[in-house]
Design a protein that fits this description.
Elements lengths: L5 E7 L6 H11 L5 H13 L15 H6 L6 E6 L4 E6 L7 H9 L3 E7 L6 H12 L5 E6 L10 H17 L4 H4 E5 L23 H6 L14 E9 L3 E7 L10 E5 L3 E10 L2 E2 L8 E7 L11 E4 L6 E11 L13 E4 L2 E14 L6 E4 L9 E8 L3 E2 L11 E6 L2 E13 L3
Parallel strand pairs: 1-3, 1-4, 4-5, 5-6
Antiparallel strand pairs: 2-3, 7-8, 7-13, 8-12, 9-10, 9-13, 10-11, 10-12, 14-18, 14-19, 14-21, 15-16, 15-20, 16-17, 16-18, 20-21
Length: 426
């Protein structure tokens, strides 16, 4: 398990553009699942009037997802390439499920953006690209899918049209397209350019999807910082006990460690650490793990809490100052506005308590002190007060715990990073 470097990869994009099908195809082409399983899913899918959904069902375990044909929660699967072993986080594209997509993307080292060549850039394509940038994704593969479709017919012109549209969007949100983005045409359903170069697209000279995955870089692992592990779920496993699950963002986690969960304040000793159902001697940044803690009951901790060393606990804040970008608000934001903030695995209502400065988005210089309102397109420095205890860190010190997205009315309203924190008195 430890031989190959590990990367977490998230598949994002608009609903029905083929994310789950692409994941299913990758798992088949790398030998994680067998053709017989796909054939069984195909028969089931056809019986339910969902022909062509067989690959998608590999990740969509929930019955409700199969009935509706959409991905709701985040699923994790492992697969290996020549160079890496990957944990796939399949993120939902449907707008109802964006909060799960945010959790998934905040755990990823790289993203595969799947865009249908037939439909081009859609609403969720835009939102997911913006959120990826905010949540710290710096490497992205843009897979332009469904090249086999009747209205596309593997034509290079159609691919270039979608690629140009994506390039403009990526540049607008601040990606360095030449350094951080790879574009490639695929048909996940027909297996074009996934594992081997497609005879249907001889005009394309770039990598296959698997080669592009092997060209990704492993981010630096901040093992020298104190442990920070946001809890994603808590399970009770018979014979073991309480098992929180989450991704190590900084530091290390190993049996014998004394840890504390904040903001709840429950502490205990780590008895064992597991990844992909195998015991491991220590977990490092990027590892998605389950770990058993002596002295903790299932109801003592919940999603959104953060584990850290008892000696250097995660910061619980009374308020924080942040740099925010207003992306999409139907009217104006004033003091007192209280939407839901999504940060690491937490979702907490927070109030805008001071609008300190409006910034020029191009230069970052102060354009106005103490503005009365903020609107779509504005960048600003604001003071935020959470409505219940919350762990958040300065972006400079722990970038993984210092970024957030703000959602309201079913859409992403703003995104930002934490400049300063006021700690809550114990």
């Amino acid at each position: 398990m430890a031989q190959k470097p590990h990367l977490n990869i998230v598949f994002i994009g608009h609903v029905d553009h083929g994310k789950s099908t692409t994941v299913g195809r990758l798992l088949l082409d790398t030998g994680v699942i067998r053709q017989e399983e796909i054939d069984k899913f195909r028969a089931e899918a056809e019986a339910k009037g969902k022909a062509t959904f067989e690959f998608a069902w590999v990740m969509d375990d929930l019955k409700e997802e199969r009935e509706r044909g959409v991905t709701i929660d985040i699923a994790h699967r492992r697969f290996d390439t020549q160079k890496y072993y990957f944990t796939i986080i399949d993120a939902p594209g449907h707008r109802d499920f964006v909060k799960n997509m945010i959790t998934g993307t905040s755990q990823a080292d790289a993203a595969v953006m799947v865009v249908s060549a037939a439909d081009g850039v859609q609403e969720q394509t835009r939102e997911h690209i913006f959120l990826s940038r905010t949540l710290g994704v710096t490497q992205m593969i843009c897979a332009i899918n469904k090249m086999d479709r009747q209205e596309v017919q593997y034509k290079e012109a159609k691919y270039n049209e979608v690629k140009d549209e994506l390039t403009r969007l990526l540049k607008n949100v601040g990606f360095k397209v030449d350094q951080q983005i790879v574009f490639l045409p695929i048909s996940a359903f027909k297996d074009d350019n996934i594992n081997k170069a497609s005879p249907n697209m001889t005009w394309f000279k770039g990598p296959t999807l698997l080669q592009a995955l092997d060209n990704l870089k492993v981010p630096e692992k901040p093992t020298d910082k104190p442990l920070r592990l946001p809890v994603q779920d808590v399970y009770t496993i018979s014979g073991i006990g309480t098992v929180p699950v989450g991704r190590v963002e900084t530091g290390k986690l190993k049996p014998g460690d004394k840890i504390i969960f904040m903001p709840g304040g429950k502490s205990g000793e780590v008895k064992s650490v597991e990844m992909h159902n195998e015991s491991i001697p220590e977990a490092i940044p990027g590892d998605n793990v389950g770990f058993n803690v002596r002295g903790i009951e299932k109801n003592d901790i919940r999603r959104g809490e953060v584990a850290g060393p008892a000696a250097a606990p995660p910061t619980v804040v009374e308020s924080f100052v942040a740099n925010v970008q207003i992306l999409n608000h139907p009217s104006v934001i004033t003091v007192g506005y209280t939407p839901v903030f999504h940060l690491h695995t937490a979702q907490v209502a927070c109030e805008f308590t001071e609008l300190q400065k409006r910034l020029d988005p191009k230069t970052g210089q102060v354009a106005e002190e103490n503005p009365q309102t903020l609107k779509t397109g504005d960048a600003a420095v604001v003071k935020i007060t959470p409505k219940r205890p919350l762990v958040i860190e300065k972006y400079k010190e722990f970038p993984q715990l210092g970024r957030f997205a703000v959602r309201d009315m079913g859409q992403t309203v703003a995104a930002g990073v934490v400049i300063d924190v006021k700690k809550r008195e114990a």
